[in-house]
Design a protein that fits this description.
Elements lengths: L2 H29 L1 H4 L2 H30 L11 H31 L7 H15 L4 H5 L19 H33 L5 H40 L9 H9 L2 H10 L2 H33 L1
Length: about 300
């Protein structure tokens, strides 16, 4: 088995793991929807849904790479640019969902009326979806998501530096700047208003600030993993011959690695989902103990 095939199998395994974790995340929220019917949990599920669809798309990409690797001269199918478009859209969806999580905490601490009504909460999420699935449409419509010369995968044309920089700035840089601004504003607000609130209010604000700090750290995790990917893409733009053949699948594996740990951390820091997970675990333990009870009684009667 050659090295590209091994990387492709690892890529499929990581994508399957991310899909399973995201599906379990959403299934837990649906199972305990009576407890999880609130906006913070809905925003966490928004991130999980983005990871679920992103992982499903990566599974399709990996399967087609396995098929095309068997041919010396492979030709892409008509859906290859569409899979590339869906890849870039869902990547932006994952990153921008962190902005909504931080904005929700910001409005709660500053008591902003922006997200008071249910209509405004739904509208802001729908606006995020519309933006994430339209910002990269120009690259798709103009045919700038072709098959790469170095791998059996479609991607934004690396020869079009304007598209590469534009999509990287919207997907990654926008999230980093927005989260930094929100966090700095909240720290300044809590520092200035600490003398105006009682101890209970200060504790609540510090708790919400801690949640925003964790959101920033989760996004930083994705950013750190994305640095090698960005460096290799820049090398590709400069000189394609510097990089080995079929290297893009290695970048995809690296970019997909943090999603499962990220969802686990996000679940644990969402109170309602964490309580639902604990209750589900206790029920499973109870079911297991009740199944063992007849076996124990039989063994006791036999010894008597």
């Amino acid at each position: 088995m050659d090295f590209p095939t091994i990387i492709n199998r690892i890529y499929l395994f990581v994508s399957s793991l991310n899909f399973t974790v995201a599906f379990g995340f959403l299934a837990l929220a649906a199972l305990y929807r009576h407890r999880c019917f609130n906006f913070p949990t809905f925003l966490a599920c928004n991130t999980a849904l983005a990871v679920l669809l992103n992982s499903a798309n990566h599974l399709a990409i990996g399967v087609f790479m396995l098929i095309w690797d068997q041919y010396e001269y492979s030709t892409v199918d008509s859906l290859c640019p569409l899979r590339a478009y869906f890849h870039h859209s869902t990547i932006a969806w994952i990153h921008h969902s962190f902005i909504l999580l931080a904005v929700d905490r910001y409005c709660k601490i500053r008591q902003v009326t922006l997200l008071k009504s249910h209509i405004s909460k739904i509208c802001i999420v729908i606006c995020q979806w519309i933006f994430d699935f339209t910002f990269d449409l120009p690259a798709l419509v103009t045919g700038n998501m072709p098959k790469l010369a170095t791998d059996n995968i479609c991607f934004v044309a690396l020869t079009r530096l304007d598209f590469v920089l534009y999509m990287a700035a919207v997907s990654f840089l926008l999230t980093d700047i927005s989260l930094s601004i929100i966090y700095r504003l909240l720290v300044r607000h809590i520092r200035d208003a600490s003398s105006k609130f009682n101890s209970n209010q200060q504790v609540r604000m510090q708790r919400d600030l801690t949640v925003v700090r964790r959101i920033v750290l989760l996004n930083s995790q994705l950013f750190v993993v994305g640095i090698p990917v960005l460096v290799l893409i820049i090398l590709t733009i400069i000189r394609v011959d510097l990089l080995p053949h079929k290297f893009m699948r290695t970048l995809l594996v690296m970019s997909n690695l943090p999603y499962s740990p990220m969802l686990v951390i996000l679940l644990l820091q969402t109170p309602d989902l964490r309580q639902s997970l604990i209750e589900c675990r206790n029920k499973l333990k109870l079911c297991r103990s009740t199944r063992l009870m007849p076996v124990q009684s039989i063994s006791l009667s036999a010894t008597a």
